[in-house]
Amino acid sequence: MGRNEPWRPTWSAAKNDWMVDFRVEGKRFRRGLGIRDENLRQTALNKAQALYKSAWGEALTPRTKDAPPSFKDAADLYVQEGGEKRFLDKILKHFGPHVRVDEISHVDIARAARAIYPQAKPETVRRQLRVPIRAVQNFAAGKRREKLPDTRRTRWLTPEEAENLLVVAANPDAIGLRDPNLQTLRKIAFMLGTGAGPGETMSALGENWNPATREWWLEGTKTVFRARYVLLPTRAVELIGHIPQSGPAFPAPDGQSYTFRKNRGGQMAVAFNKVRDAAGFGKDVTPYVLRHTRHSWAYSMTKDWGDLLDQGGWNRSDTANRYRKITPDDLGHRLLAHGWDFRRDPGPPVRFGEKVSLRRP
């Protein structure tokens, strides 16, 4: 093969074809020409040379790419695909409709932080500015994890079902459960009031309780829940009763502290299942259902999406989204009838006989 004619073909008796083997900009072209006659050398040469020129023409033609979209267009599509909109309005107002999504740099984000959140703490800036911007940029670059449709049914208790469970837990002797200090009742009330997971409940410490604000600091877990303050409704506080000033707030029914293992949330299941069975519920009602119940209740009453995210402690908002659509319209009134009030500001007291209505934000 000539040095200046790398396309020159050679005859392969084994394949009964004229073959070429050359490289163009690092890409190797090694193939048969489909000319099955050794005597057609000139035809093979012409075809090989045309292939060589075509390969170089393609290599030297600039590849045009679509211009990156504006940050606004990318953000709109991000929200349409299920992304969180909560903090984007302020960001879009700052950057305007024409800034491209790939033009926003670390310096631009720092300037936006100074303009939008001049007095905010670094964690607030990270959560409400940096994370949403990066989420939109990752979405535009195709790096965002594709969401699967959430078709799972979330089991939660109605106020009437929860009342039945609480009544049984308040009378452990009647079902043969040795629980003299009603520890199972206290745990159920805590989870119904806060949405804490079973493991979080068993590891909750008395020194993290603030009776003045009815808030409890949960330290979170490494993989599931974020550390956060949870607000207890008055009904939950009344059912829990005495809270120690320090140490484990919710020991086992025998009064001993739990020894945590890898699957620590399951340690309260024995006593809980006994209460559940006596209350007439099936195995689909687990301790974790109490967490689902609280979030279903609270959102149905307040319609406060931000509070749902803060109280739930999820690392992602995907799971929280299902609590926006699984409860009936009258649930808030039924909750009030049973003494459950998740509103931070219930408003002025009502007079006896006056219809109670829930204020919408």
TrEMBL record:
| GO MF term list | DNA binding
Is Transcription there in the keyword field? no
List the InterPro entries hit by this protein, alphabetically: DNA_brk_join_enz (IPR011010), Integrase-like_cat_sf (IPR013762), Integrase_catalytic (IPR002104)
Q: From what superkingdom does this record's organism come?
A: Bacteria
GO terms classed as biological process:
DNA integration; DNA recombination
Instruction: Supply the SUPFAM superfamilies for this chain.
Output: DNA breaking-rejoining enzymes (SSF56349)
Keyword annotations from UniProtKB, A to Z: DNA recombination
Tell me where in this chain the Tyr recombinase domain is found: 152-336
Instruction: Please state what the protein is called.
Output: Phage integrase family protein
